[in-house]
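Morning. Coffee machine broken again, so started the prediction first thing and wrote up yesterday's gels while waiting. Chain of 388 residues, entered below exactly as on the submission form.
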Amino acid sequence: MRILHTSDWHLGRSFHRISLLQAQRDFIDHLVRTVRQRQVDAVLIAGDVYDRAVPPLAAVELFDDALHRLAHLGVPTVLISGNHDSARRLGVGSGLMERAGIHLRTAPSGCGTPVLLADEHGEVACYGLPYLEPALVRREFTTDTGSHQAVLTAAMDRVRADLAERPAGTRSVVLAHAFVTGGAPSDSERDITVGGVASVPAEVFAGVDYVALGHLHGCQTLSERVRYSGSPLAYSFSEARHRKSMWLIDLGPGGELAAERIDCPVPRPLARLHGRLEDLLADPAHEAHRDSWVEATLTDPARPADPMARLAARFPHVVSIAFAPERAPEDPGGSYAQRLRDRDDRQIAMDFVAHVRGGQGPDEAERRVLTEALDAVRTAEALDEVSR
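Came back before lunch.
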């Protein structure tokens, strides 16, 4: 069976206030063309179809168009909701869509009920595990702890229990939207930390022929059978080095697996430039970035006059400027943004406590209170999205 694995479309998202709608249309064209030309048997979309719970109308229309075109090709499509999606909104009409071969899996209760696909070698049981917010699904799975690992383990227990009841040799595929240990994040994924822990071990998915992951925006291979497709477009400059692609998976009759990366169209390359303004304007090596979206980090000791206009004269598509003044080695200072870079909300809170106490960080009890407070805010945000 030939499977096309994609995820994290984030329809409706912009890039530094630049609309990506046409680029997303181009991706959908590319997806449909790939399905047709490469004779794909099933399409898997591993969450974050939309960029927010209430997407703009243009994004909804584009998604609708994509589903109609896939259904017209007669190719089954299985998709799950991600942490950016409103699971209930995305799942509206799922019963009717199923008749057209569009299988939406947005409810936690359906984790152990597969979509049954078939080829000349028999059935493939395809299980959809939507994004499982621990605070919202803990009762569904009756877990002792409200962690990502606990709820995903419980969901996978249902998958394995169902699979054990099926004929010997039934192949299995799981779609999941999660942060799996070993994956490399970027700046454009929304934090899903619970209790200070965001990731789950890949061993949670043991016993499955292929795991199609969504959430991280870089295409990654965690093991032969556990992969992220990544997002089809770059949504932040931290993705400048990403090769945007989809996975074309051939699943053999005995579970044998072959994988091929299918590159996605690039609307415009990204460039991250770093240096003094005059050097960026004069260096001939930067001529290659004239047509790129540019993020420029200026290191001038004093902020130069009118930097955006001067950069735009050479780089018409410059969209972001940051300042990181060169400092003497003994200077302990730095911009606030630099000090916060690569830290999650929990680390920032802990560091703030240490800062105001002259270096003394929170004790264990205080860490627990801060973690619970951050989790409560995330839970409230999730509940608000569900109720909208």
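The first strand starts at residue 2 and ends at 6. Going to sketch it on the whiteboard this afternoon.
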